[in-house]
Design brief:
By secondary structure, this protein is mostly beta strands. The protein contains 1 helix and 8 strands; from the N terminus they run E-E-E-E-H-E-E-E-E. The strands form 2 sheets. The chain has a 6-stranded antiparallel barrel. A two-stranded antiparallel ribbon has the order 2-3.
Length: 113
C-alpha cells in the first residue's frame, strides 16, 4: 500500500508586523510538518468493538510507523490536533501508541483553504 503524506501545522504563521503596543502579529500557521501514513475507513461502531471506545467521533484510522515520522513531531499525535491531507483538514480523536507504530483515529473537519 502506498504511503500518503499529511502535514501538521507549524507553530506560527508568517510575520505580519506589530500591533499598536509593539507586539508581533503572526498569521495563521501553515501545514508544513510532514508525516507518512496509510489509512482505512473506520466507524464509531468499529471503535467500540475494536478498542472499547463508546463515545468517539471517527471516520478513518491511520497507521503511522515511527520510522515515517520526524522524531520531534511524534508528540503531535494527540487528541484534537489537526492536520492537512489532500486539501482537507482532519482532527485526531484518539491515538493508540505501540512500540513501532501508532494507530490514530481521525474525523474530517472540512476543506482546507
Amino acid at each position: 500500500m502506498k504511503l500518503k503524506t499529511g502535514y501538521f501545522f507549524g507553530a506560527k504563521g508568517a510575520f505580519l508586523g506589530y500591533d499598536s503596543d509593539g507586539r508581533p502579529i503572526y498569521g495563521s500557521p501553515k501545514p508544513e510538518i510532514p508525516f507518512k501514513f496509510t489509512w482505512e475507513p473506520f466507524s464509531p461502531l468499529l471503535a467500540t468493538n475494536t478498542y472499547g471506545l463508546s463515545t468517539i467521533e471517527v471516520r478513518y484510522r491511520l497507521f503511522v510507523r515511527k520510522r515515517n515520522v520526524i522524531p520531534s513531531t511524534y508528540d503531535k499525535f494527540k487528541t484534537n490536533t489537526e492536520f492537512v491531507y489532500n486539501g482537507y483538514k482532519y482532527k485526531i480523536t484518539y491515538t493508540l501508541k505501540y512500540d513501532n507504530h501508532l494507530e490514530v483515529l481521525i474525523t474530517e473537519v472540512g476543506a482546507y483553504t
